[in-house]
Amino acid sequence: MENKKIILTGDRPTGALHLGHYVGSLKKRVQLQNTGEYKQFVMIADLQALTDNAENPEKIRNNILEVMLDYLAVGLEPEKTTFFVQSHIPALYELPMYYSNLVTMSRLERNPTIKNEIKMRNFERNLPVGFMTYPISQAADITAFKAKYVPVGEDQLPMLEQAREIVSAFNRIYKCDILVEPEAVLPDNENCNRLVGTDGNTKMSKSLGNCIYLKDSEKDIKQKVMSMFTDPLHINVSDPGHTENNPVFIYLDAFSTEEDFARFMPEYKDLAEMKEHYERGGLGDMKCKKLLNNIMQEFLRPIRERREQYEKDKSYLLEVLKKGTEEAIEVSNKTVSEIRNAIGINYFTDDSFIDKFVK
């Protein structure tokens, strides 16, 4: 592992994964995995999910293997990627305690990602402490494995910036270079940094019910695509339309190729030509949605079929998670040992402490 660049990423098991997860991170994980240049750890973040689901742990329990199914369905492979469960890694309980002493409450309150999530969930003054300290927990996840690269969507950049601040503070205070400052790995297509919901909301979110899931059936996909929000000013086919901030065209930007146009809508060479027609008027929303439905059906079908195959053997999923978790414990424990040594709380193994205060 020493010769490979390390990646840490993961997802909260609060439901099956959706297209926002795929374009925001999953696609990049598969690409990086298949280069052979990286050691990739993928975490099922059940502890983080508990920060706003403490009264409903069954929701998390029910979705552990759902998330694993999605991982394997999109092309992540146990032979190339280590999967683990966050709550079973002792280091991820210990490191947040050390890091919490390096972060002020005012800094946590300024984190834009936390502020947005608080607003979306209407927490106000009923905010759980665990949710507020989410950035500290995330920093522990990353640094426990000395990850240099973290595939994320644009909305997670403030969290990564706070992790870098914690790393910098720790290395400075304890005069060491143990912790590695992480870097974000963003999607190649800027339209994928934050995929909008089918309702036009700025974020696709399970809690908002505006998702197309990786496991959705053909019927569900069609229903969701055909009912998508478009340009509210494009009332008649002849009306000029707006493609900017139009969910249908955002999805086409993210998923369509010239081959798709050749197959499903040959009257246009590519998306640029189609956009130009829509913007000058004369192209209806239903025709655009039919194209998008065809593209999404072709894209999601093989993912759904692989998922159905893996679903036949749940014991295999559990074994993969167990084996990966054991490896993650071993790797993260080494980091914890180095951190204890740097802080100076290694009382039982530090010969200099024993010689000075005991002998």
Q: Brief description of this entry?
A:
With about 350 residues, the chain is mainly alpha-helical. About 55% of the residues lie in helices and about 5% in strands. The longest helix has 30 residues, at about 315-345.
What is this structure's SSE topology?
Blueprint: E1 5-11, H1 19-35, E2 38-44, H2 46-50, H3 57-74, E3 81-85, H4 91-100, H5 105-110, H6 112-121, H7 129-132, H8 134-144, E4 149-151, H9 157-173, E5 183-185, H10 218-226, H11 247-255, H12 258-264, H13 271-280, H14 285-310, H15 314-343, H16 351-357
Parallel strand pairs: 1-2, 2-3, 4-5
Report on this model:
The protein has 359 residues and is mainly alpha-helical. The protein has two domains: 234 residues, Rossmann fold (3-Layer(aba) Sandwich); 94 residues, Tyrosyl-Transfer RNA Synthetase. The strands form two sheets. Strands 1-2-3 form a three-stranded parallel β-sheet. Strands 4-5 form a two-stranded parallel ribbon. It starts with a strand and ends with a helix. The relative contact order is 0.13.
Q: Structural class given helices, strands, pairing?
A: mainly alpha
The number of domains: 2
Which CATH first-tier class of the largest domain would you pick? Alpha Beta
The CATH superfamily of the largest domain is identified as HUPs
Provide the CATH architecture of the largest domain: 3-Layer(aba) Sandwich
